[in-house]
Amino acid sequence: MSALHNKVAIVTGATSGIGKAAAELFAQEGASVVLSGRRGEILDQMVRDIEAAGGKAFAVAGDVKDETHAKACVDAAVEHFGGLDIAFNNAGGSGAMGSVMEVSPEDWRETIDTNLTSAFLGAKYQVPAMLKRGGGSLIFTSTFVGSTVGFPGMAAYAASKAGLTGLAQVLAAEFGPHGVRANVLLPGGTDTPANHANAPGATPETRTFIEGLHALKRLGQPEELAQAALFLASDASSFMTGSSMLVDGGVSITRT
């Protein structure tokens, strides 16, 4: 039997990178998937592709910073697929870069809202739906930055992502007795369009440097992180909650 047979999942940030790979994998593993992202045309194509492969999906375009979008995703899961079992709160961004003396309060708040407040809003509506099913799995995409490593110029990003650990721990403690689990995924450098190694103007030397920070001397592939998310979503991790799981290619322990 597939790992997510008869489960219903929400995946945010589903139009590219880790979110896209996870949404496709969850569907392959039997889940009915609500796809969240800002680019509706990409979401619609993903729905067609998933359905053509025999899966089930429904698209909800919108901004994760918007509370009405968080509610709309849960409403779609309930109305189209009967409930909610899994939420992969994956959407996020690097936000404003620069010294704490240079980042404006507006840019700070935008980064916090994108990476942390969006996760709070998601959980606010996801948890009640999961409670009606007798439990579920919440997953948040954080990063090793702000968890095991501090990079200059990334204060807003690190603070927003580190906050997800505290959020997940509280959710785990509050709702564990009711069968709801909450865990955090901590990726290393991943070969996505948002990675600095792939940014406009990035040189081969930049990519080599970023790869070299990792013990495996390469970037992770979105599909590898999707497999880790699948583990946290599935019953394979049924006794795991309140945890932060490093899937970082050894970047956190490497000094060579």
List the helices and strands and how they pair.
Elements: E1 8-12, H1 17-28, E2 32-37, H2 40-52, E3 56-61, H3 67-81, E4 86-89, H4 105-132, E5 136-141, H5 155-175, E6 180-187, H6 204-212, H7 222-233, E7 244-247
Parallel strand pairs: 1-2, 1-4, 2-3, 4-5, 5-6, 6-7
Helix pairs in contact: 1-7, 3-4, 4-5
Helix content: 40-55%
> Could you list the spans in which at least 5 consecutive residues all have pLDDT below 50?
none
The count of β-strands is 7
Q: Please state roughly what percent of the residues sit in beta strands, choosing from under 5%, 5-15%, 15-25%, 25-35%, 35-45% or over 45%.
A: 15-25%
Oligomer: single chain
Structural class: alpha/beta
Quick one: CATH superfamily?
Answer: NAD(P)-binding Rossmann-like Domain
Give the class-level CATH name: Alpha Beta
**Helix/strand order, N-terminal first:** EHEHEHEHEHEHHE
Give the CA-based shape: globular
Termini separation comes to 43 Å
Can you walk me through this structure?
The longest helix has 28 residues, at about 105-130. The chain is built from seven helices and seven strands, in the order βαβαβαβαβαβααβ. α1 crosses α7. It has helices at about 15-30, 40-50, 65-80, 105-130, 155-175, 205-210, 220-235; strands at about 10, 30-35, 55-60, 85-90, 135-140, 180-185, 245. By secondary structure, the protein is of the alpha/beta class. The model has no long low-confidence stretch (mean pLDDT about 95). The protein is globular. It starts with 7 loop residues before the first strand and ends in a 9-residue tail after the last strand. β1, α1 and β2 form a beta-alpha-beta unit. It has a single domain (about 10-245), classed as NAD(P)-binding Rossmann-like Domain (Rossmann fold, 3-Layer(aba) Sandwich). The protein has a seven-stranded parallel beta sheet, with helices on both faces.
